[in-house]
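User: Can you write out an input/output pair for a complex, sequences first and structure second?

Assistant: Here is one pair. Inputs:
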Amino acid sequence: MKILFINGTNKIGGGELSLLSIAKYYRKNSAVVSFDNGDYTNLLQENGIVSIVLKNAKELLNIKREDGILGSLLKIKYLFLTIFELRKLIKDYDIIYCNSQKSIFLGLLSTLFIRKKVVIHVRDMMDNPNISNFHKKIFVFLINFRRPVIIANSVATKEALISIGIKRKIEVVYNGIMIKDLKKREKEKKKKFIIAMFSRISHWKGQKYFIKAVKLLKDKKEFENMEFWIVGDALMNDKDKDYKSYILKLIKKYDLEDKIKLFGFIKNSIELMQNIDILVLPSIYPEPFGRVVVEAMLLKKVVIATNHGGVTEIIENNKSGILVDVENLAYDISESILKLYNDKEFYKYLAENGNKRAIENFTEEKMLKNIDNIIKD
Ligand code: UDP
Ligand code: GLC
């Protein structure tokens, strides 16, 4: 069975890391098509995966409203050229597997009236108000017309698809993570209590609320012994870059430059994550899944995350982690941090339950088995 994976961005986000596991498993007779060269295509090659870069798709990566009609028309030219390129490629494969939003559009368009099996792996909340209604309508139309096999990365993502009008069967396959041969962490003598975010810097990931929570802890006696990390960078677009300058200013304004350490994007982030005590994921919109949550649980760390989206399928509140409401995000995070710092029994209870839950439900092995069953079907 030859599989052609289509992947939308050349940046390394969670959707791309999840695809990496899948493509690696099938690498003997498959390839991953990308829209442009970049960090992700390098990563594919490092993993021995055949990587194909389209010639005309680069332009499609940055479609913006400001492009105006003329700009959009120019893009349409690239759209047709890309579809043409893909239709030629597709001939040599049995299954076309589209990962995330942009590649789903392209994949469905390119396989119209071609008799190939198409799988779409949805990793976005398609009911998001930031996605235009027009965009949603085309998405639904293409799916209902082309009739692909649909995989969602959580029940939350599946329900969002149903709510915008998808009537076909939707399989849920949770992401799974493999943690292997970690270099043993060095035992520091007097280590601080480390609270960290491991997310790309973007408005909806909520770094702002993390920083506000740190500010709320400033006058507490426990603060002295705490350290805060922001791991990740503004990856996807200019808006993310603006948000990054905003949070840098915020850190300065609150006089927290000595307390919050910024790492930028880290390649083997799980290795670094070994050193933390608490992982925070304060997304302000529902997270479709949230790989970092599982990674931290596999490392026996306690997670504090917002109570919505796919994360609520991973964490059981006060049993395998802590879920906080989006309304009082900063305050609730700061209170949860204090509780975990002071109540070692509670910390241990959550860390152990979380670890057990992640090992039972969110391993790479389990994910690959589920995907393989769908593909063989
Ligand atoms: N990550 C990374 N380097 C960083 C920050 C994060 O490799 O500097 C990884 C993180 O460990 C996780 C992924 O990026 O595997 C993010 O996935 P998640 O599902 O949490 O969020 P997404 O980016 O997909 O919205
Ligand atoms: C997307 C989502 C994230 C999810 C990842 C992998 O990037 O934002 O929540 O974990 O896909 O499916």
